[in-house]
């Protein structure tokens, strides 16, 4: 939580020690927690600033507003509290079509927090309220009241019921409703309203554990990637340290991967071999453009001349002038090429050292029930194939996707091999309990047909002068197939009758009653589709494994 003081100081933390600056206004941007409200009241009593602009990330309750009013009155600072805003920004947008609910204290609404066996009803209620508050903020910002669909009998249904109630209560107060300017269409039968599908993580536990093959997913899996910023260790070159000297520390460098990066926007969902080739193509193009500028300068005898002199040449030098004027664009292109060269090289190091291509292909076959060309035990026992965590992830996927669990004798053999490689079996203990429960409650998730097509090995460097030595790495081409959540979304958007979704609950906060309504006309009238993906927390496989292990600890 932070605040800024207009015109004088940069952003500062609310709970840091601050000296009075009585001649400037201050802007607060905070969550309306008890701790933060108490500190605001303390600032009022200490007369720290000339005036106060209070911006709350989510709606502040009446009781907390009264606490602020009481403090302002006691400090004779009522007139100094200039504005109080509910900003409804309790979520984080990572991309145009993707958001998460929580960054700080995300363990409070994590998979582990929701599924731990000793959770109290009051704690669960608090978790659901936190999630609903963030989702309500999201839809206020979106400016639209959704139609809500969810499965029955799990946390998703609890969230749906509470969110429907919160939206209804706001719509009921027409004068103060936050949706009166519904930007996606007005009226309860508007054809532009979004469909909001709530899914429980237990629907599909295999996908978060699955080794990946696309650029963005690999970065999230194997590198330090958080809130669109990736950190990689810089290469120190091939120079060896002098005998007896301490090894050089590797420096970490951070890069922001955002929508402004055209290469990232185009290739973040591409298979890694395609990305490596694209980076090399961009580098070759840049070098050709750079060489052209040097050639033109050489022809004109302008080596060492400044750009001002070049631009004053006659019309015969227009070509050179155009080339030089594109230098800023070339420099930005070079910056992005260097960025993705460094990031892709770091990813490739993990692929080669851990044989991630082998894991990805094998797991795809497990999930699609395809024929296996190697025994699972061989991969687990191979000391050169991945880390202990890689092996544990592979076995958990096998266990989750198997129609029948292995026999006790086979399971003991697998467990011994896993322990011998350094695996912690706590996550397996939880998955066994989860599997036994889901077997009684529902059929296992289906992952469709095989989603990968092997194209052989990269036998050498991709092309002459390439930055990426892909020798020994499998050239795997992805085939389109739908994961469980994607399939459920398709069923609901297209109004398909399917056992997976026929029993899903329906909520329309704009309706006087919550009964199911016919959406055939709505479906026909829709001109296009746009899917926004949101989650309570964004974790990689290692973080998810940690939560599973916590749940499986005895």
From TrEMBL:
Pfam family name, one: Sec1
Record keyword Protein transport present: yes
One example of a Gene Ontology biological process annotation: vesicle-mediated transport
Gene designation: LOC107733096
UniProt similarity note: Belongs to the STXBP/unc-18/SEC1 family.
Record region (Disordered): 234-253
SUPFAM superfamilies: Sec1/munc18-like (SM) proteins
Name of the protein described by the UniProt record: Sec1 family domain-containing protein 1-like
Species, as recorded: Sinocyclocheilus rhinocerous
Keywords carried by this UniProt record: Protein transport, Transport
UniProt-listed PANTHER family: VESICLE PROTEIN SORTING-ASSOCIATED
